[in-house]
Each structure stands twice: as structure tokens, then as C-alpha cells.
Task: structure prediction
Amino acid sequence: MSKNNENGYALLIVLLLIVLILSLTAVFFRGSLSNAKQEMIVDENHLTVMAAESGVDYIKSELSNEFYGKREELDNFIKQEIKTAGEKNKLNYDSIQIVATKKLEGYLSEILIQEKSRAPRKIESYYRHQLVDYKIEANKTVGVISITGSVAGLYENGEVKKEKSITFNQIFKVPNYNPLLSESSGSNIDVPNMYKLYPDNVKASACKSKNEGKIEEQTCSGDRNANYKDIEDSTVYFPDGFNKSTGNLEVEESKIYAKGDFRVNNFNDLEDSLFLLDGSFSAKNMNEIEDSTMMVNGNMTIESNMELEESSLIVRGATHIKGHLTVKDKSRVCISGSLTVDKHLTIEDQSILYIWGSYVVHNKLKGTIKTISSEQELWDKCKVGAGAENGPVWSKPVIDHIKYN
Result:
């Protein structure tokens, strides 16, 4: 009987231990599930905030690109207004600044209207960003435009929806061209002058292409719509720009001077050459710049990868590389406007990239981008000129503050 009691007690103890273990396991399992769920919620919230940050970067870049893209037009407008008013003895620098500021306000407003009306932009599977609200204010008497915007980061996965918003403020300025108010753009002028790359009083006969579009050992004036394929050991002037929507173009051991837009389908090679453009440049494919200097007094758009080897690239406007950008072998890139690289940006040792405006690299950045505090400093670094006769320096856009809501 005693032995049976002992067996009963032992069995009871075993059962109690089993119940205790199961209870502890259940508590631990519930805790683990709760922690995992909490971590997932934290990750979702964090990524939603990151989506909003990406949206702020995108809107900021779009506005900056518009500013840099219209800056030359506004500069020309102001100079023409000054000339016209001076001829009529009715010159008022303040009034001209007010009109120019109003024009810039209109351009920036168009960008904001377009972005607010768009559907949310997709970043990843469940994350998007959208400009949900904005306010644009212009103090035209001092040439200041202030934009306050609210960007939402959105997460949507089935019935689960999250939203985080960020408010930002971006400021643009139109300078007063009154010489008594404006500081000089610089006095020690090197050549070439980035504000004026196309030479005056060019006298050259029309280019004579042979061998299916080849220009060789000539100093001549190029036709905007000609089907040139190869320019070698020549100096060619394009007074009306160049437009080659199909086919290839190669430039070797030559000097190119162009005024107006320069559009090329496939720019296979720029080698041992000097390329100066008073206008905007675009190419569907731009393979390599080797042992050359390329200067663009306007915007630059490349729809492919681009590589610089022992070369210099200097751009005064907005620069958009839709593929990879590689800067190597003691190359130098100097950009006064904004820079957008859709894929990788690689700056190898002994090469350098200076920028005065804003920049966005959508993929991997290898190397260092050096931000410059003024346009004149940029020209000094890049050994080019910016004559005082060209008017005051335009301040780059400024992000005044960012608030996480």
C-alpha cells in the first residue's frame, strides 16, 4: 500500500512538472510572438519614415533642377530688361528683380502643381511617397522665394496602412543686378569663361564632309542637321547647335565650339579633344571621355553609363546621368548646378568631384563628393573664369529646416 502511494506521488509530481513546463513554454511563445510583432511594427514605421525622407529628397531635387535649368533664361531676361530700360532712361534694378522673381515663382509653382497631382511614387513593394501639401511665398522686393511642403511616406499591405509625414522649407533667391549692391563674381579671370564659351566673330567656311560624314583636318562651320559621324584633327564651330537623333558620333584630336542645344544619339568617343558648349547637352549613349575637356554652359543629360578617364567635365547647369558614372585616372568633375545619378557613382583615387548645388545618388556611392560654398570657389577649383561683367553670383537653393511630424 505504501509502495502504491509512493508511485502515485511520483506520478503526480511528473504531471505537475509537465503542466509547469507547458505553461512556461506558452508564456515564452506568446512573448516571442509579441516581440516579433512589435519589431515588425517598428520596422514598418521606420521604413515609412524613410519613404517620406526619400520623397523630400526627390521634391528638393526636382525644384533645384528647375531652378538651375531656368537660371540662364532668367539671367538673359534680366540683362535684356536692363539693356532695354537703359536705352529708354527708365532703368530700375529693383523692378527688374521683382519681375524676374515672379517668373521663377511661376516655374517652381508648375513643378509643385504637377507633383501634388501625381499618384504616389512607388519606392518598393509596399512603400510610396507623395507631396500632399505645399505653400509658396515670394518676397519679390528682395528676390526671395520660400517653399514649404509636406511629404507623406506611405505603407500599404492589404488592410494594414501607415503614413508618416515630413515638412520641409526650401529657399530660392534671385539676385539684384544693381552693380552698387552686387559683389563681383571675381577678378582674376582664366580662360575659358564659363559664362561665355562660344567665341565672338567666328569666321569659318562650311564644313566639307567626306567618306560618309567624316570631317578631317578642317577649320570650319558645322551644319546643325548634318549627318556627321567622325570629326578628327579639326576645329569645328556649331553656331546653331547640333541635332543628331540617329547614328554615331566620334570626336578625336579636335576642338568643338557650339552655341545652342547639342543633341546626339550615340556619342561613342570624345578623345584628346576640347568640347565647349554654350547651351545644353544630351546624349542617349555617352560611352567615354578620354584625355579630353568638356565644358557645358547649360544642362547635361546622359541616358546611359558614362566614364571619364584622365579628363575634365565642367557643367554650369543641372546634370542627370541615368546610368552609372565613373570618374577615374586623375579625372575632375565640377558641377555648378545639381547632380542626379540614377545608378552607381564611382570616384576613384586621385580623381575628384566638386559640386556647388545639390546632389542625389540613387544607388551606391564610392568615393567622396566635395561640396563647394560658392560658385566662384568652384571656378577657382576648376581653373575656369567667370567675368564680373556677367552679373552677380546666384545663390544655390537652401533647405532651411526639416520637421518630422
